[in-house]
Amino acid sequence: MEKVLAIETSCDDTSVAIVNYDGKFIKTEKSVSYSQIKEHKKFGGVVPEIASRLHNEKIIGILESIGKDNIVKCDKIVVTANPGLPGSLIIGKTVANILGEYYGKEIIYENHIHGHIFSILLGRDIDKINLPIAILTASGGHNDIYILSKNDNKFNLEHIGMTLDDASGECFDKCARMLGGPYPGGAWISKIAKDGKNDDDLKIGPIYLKQNEYKYSFSGIKSKVYYAIKQIEEKYGSLSDQDIKNIAYMTQEAIVKSLGKKIIQACLEYECKTLSIVGGVSANDRLIEYIQNKTKKYNIDVIRPIKKEYSTDNADMIGASYLGKKYYFNLSLIN
Q1: pLDDT of amino acid 334
Q2: I need a surface site. Which of 144, 166, 198, 207 has the fewest CB within 10 A?
Q3: d(Cα 104, Cα 98) in Å, to the nearest integer?
Q4: What local confidence, expressed as pLDDT, does residue 23 receive?
Q5: What's the CA gap between 315 and 17, in Å, rounded?
Q6: 151 Cβ partners below 8 Å, 6+ apart?
Q7: What is the pLDDT of residues 61-71, one digit of tens each?
Q8: Which residues form the Gcp-like domain (predicted)?
Q9: Greatest alpha-carbon span in the chain
Q10: At what angle do helices 168-178 and 186-193 cross, to 10 degrees?
């Protein structure tokens, strides 16, 4: 068994966890996180300077909650090195290096997006995950498509697609703000969308780029929402509650269909047996429902992290990325 202390400070969540691999499962022994949402909510998004200051203020208390005795028992320290907010990342890396020097532990630098990719391993029987896997990472900061496959007893993680502008989570947040909703906006839009319906006059729909490319664009959806709101305001003076619900419904459908079409296309082209959705947007039940309905006839397993807290930015997934790549997928050199 290997046990690691994992640290994640790439954006607005300060998170530390102890994660182990027992030869079959990757599990969290202890995890403590601090979310900065309430501090950033008033600004409608993450303010980098505030994020790094709060990481600096909170991380020592979180380490104390993890406990010195537990830290001593860890074999290595794994920390997010990229991508992310530079000021936030440096807090985590500095603390990891201080701990590594003090306790004589090796420091492993991990990729934040790989953390999301391998978050599906946490608490799950890895042997029951059928390869190849088409993986969609969907959050406020990134949208990427990866294929995890095995050829000639060698595992390969191939990056085949990404967003060209806004990420889907960012689109949810900005559209929610235009509708007078809170930050973050994804859960709010998903909730009120249940009472919304389509309005053909508003022309809010998905955006599909070239058929043979795995690229996303969400800035256009944001623009469509902006002009739909202006259209109603010019005609009626203001949005009614039902207008807000309808726009939320169409916004969610547009994002879900944009995400779904490309990842399903990739899954079929690469003959994947599993389709995995990770990152904050993987908590959107409508996205899962849409993809499951579209892939049902192909007998494809659709999975996401087993706990919603594993979908957000968390240290657990950073530990899982290192342990999964090293012990199961033999991809330790990828960072």
Answers
A1: 46
A2: 198
A3: 10
A4: 87
A5: 5
A6: none
A7: 999 999 999 99
A8: 31-319
A9: 68
A10: 70
Domain identity same for 200 and 266 = yes
Strand partners, 3: 20
CA 102 to chain centre: 32
Q: Kindly state whether residue 333 falls inside one of the protein's structural domains.
A: no
State percent of the chain over pLDDT 70.
99
CATH number, domain of 261, equals: 3.30.420.40
325 Cβ contact partners less than 8 Å away, ≥ 6 residues apart: 114, 118, 331, 332, 334
Look up residue 125 and give its amino acid.
Answer: D
Do 289 and 314 share a structural domain? no
H or E stretch at 22 = none
Q: Are residues 109 and 93 part of one domain?
A: yes
Under DSSP, the state recorded for 79 is: E
Looking at the fold, whether 134 and 271 belong to one and the same domain comes out as: yes
Residues 295 and 317 in one domain: no
Residues whose CB falls within 8 Å of the CB of residue 175, separated by 6 or more in sequence, listed in order: 185, 189, 221, 222, 225, 247, 248, 251
Going from the C-alpha of 335 to that of each of 81, 162, 178, 295, 331, the distances in angstroms are 9, 18, 37, 31, 9
